[in-house]
Prior knowledge:
Blueprint: H1 9-16, H2 35-56, H3 59-65, H4 70-77, H5 80-100, H6 108-125, H7 127-138, H8 142-145, H9 148-170, H10 180-196, H11 198-205, H12 212-230, H13 233-254
Helix pairs in contact: 1-4, 2-3, 2-5, 2-7, 4-5, 5-9, 6-9, 6-10, 6-12, 9-10, 10-12
Amino acid sequence: MDPSIEPGAPAKAAAAGGTEGGGPTRRGAPQPRSEQLEARILDAAVFEFSEHGFAGARIERISQRAKTVDRMLYYYYGNKERLYQAVLEKIYADMIGAQRDFVMPSDPVEGMRQLVEHSWDHYVTHPDLVRLLMNENLLRGKHIQASAQVERTSFPLVETVSALLASGQAKGVFRTDVSSEHVLMTIMSLGFFYVSNQYTCSRWIGADLMTRPRRAKWRAHICDVVLEFLEPRDRAAARKSVPAKKSAAKAALAR
């Protein structure tokens, strides 16, 4: 028995319009859903699941934080698993919603830089997202895989990266032998790893990685890594040869 579900919860869920294992089964006309209440429930659930994981989360704590009663959670979501899936869908929707505000510049290099910064800023300002995704990976993506909505929600981010990459390739400022998938995974990895591993890395590095100066330096570093990776090889070689020529000239003058 799930310890997070109080005794008699299945009966309450059935009376309120849901069952422990599925969706609403209420007979007759359904009660109108309250968007404000649903928002409070989801916000409370995001906090609870990010702090305690799926196994450790408690329905009663979520309802208390949302200033409602347990039966309303069962009425809207049926059971704990479906509420957790709704939380995952929410954090993905929030991430893509923020990305939709991204205005793509005509300059693909500047556009890629801004996209990298935009992605990094979202990870830093949404630590719940990072913790929830870490927990879901421990569960081997069980709930993500069951959600068709997550796949649909995530697609615009892939489109944005693909559009920027194609634009840069057409203008000759990006390499043509890279895929949008690799670019997107690189951006996400460099941002996600830093935030998700901040505590252990801060310990062995001996410094707080989340201070404002260190975050700013990492933000700039991610941009440099991605843009240098995308730079056409001939341009990169020419750029690197300039300092070498200058060093050789200085050495010749010193002799």
